[in-house]
Amino acid sequence: MSTELRNISFHGIGTPNGPEREPGEHRYWVTEQAFLDVLDECAKHPQVRLSFDDGNASDVTIALPALAERGLTADFFPIADRIGDPESVNEDGLRALTAAGMTVGTHGAGHRPWTSALAAHHDAELRTARTRIAEATGRPVDTAACPFGAYDRHVLKALRAAGYRTVFTSDARPAREGAWLQPRYSVEAQDTAETVRTRMLTPRSLSGRMVDRGVLTMKAWR
Ligand SMILES: [Zn+2]
What we know:
Strand content: 5-15%
CATH superfamily: Glycoside hydrolase/deacetylase
Structural class: alpha/beta
Number of strands: 9
Low-confidence stretches: none
Radius of gyration: 16 Å
Mean pLDDT: 94
Helix content: 40-55%
CATH topology: TIM Barrel
Order of helices and strands: EHEHEHEHEHEEEEHH
Number of helices: 7
Shape: globular
Largest sheet: 6 strands, mixed
Bound molecules: zinc ion
Oligomer: single chain
Number of domains: 1
């Protein structure tokens, strides 16, 4: 049986510079101190895998040095159309991430939910964005994180057809090592090391595991 993992995802760290880019975005920003506390907690749990969505500038200014200091690695999922804008990671930053052993995947082109965006923007979201990020990092991109955690069977089929090796969602459930679809827990503004431990790192009961499996199967086949 494969190892159970806990994928934990962050968005912005510190204080956002401007208004929300999407309604509710600031709910996912954490203070630098909360981030460091949560990171120290995560470092104690070998089953944790870390990721960072949206390509905020704090990926490089705050997360990268904190990860390196702790000997941790993570997956980063920037938004292709935002690379180099004033609030976001730029090409030098993306190269600094890969040079430090981090993996850079794609979070699409324009931060649109793929459940509705792929009909009109399939190529931009799944192909052009991936090429743009790969050119910026100088590495192939073979992992994707669904914007807003939104997916259905059509999205998953499109991602499989595009050849992505691993796809990350935001289903707040444990994951299996090596599985193509990786549910993640999202750290939110009010989280602390304590809430992350109780909400994301406690062992699941047998009945909880059965619910996890049922819910994820249902979501993938909607
Ligand atoms: Zn996002």
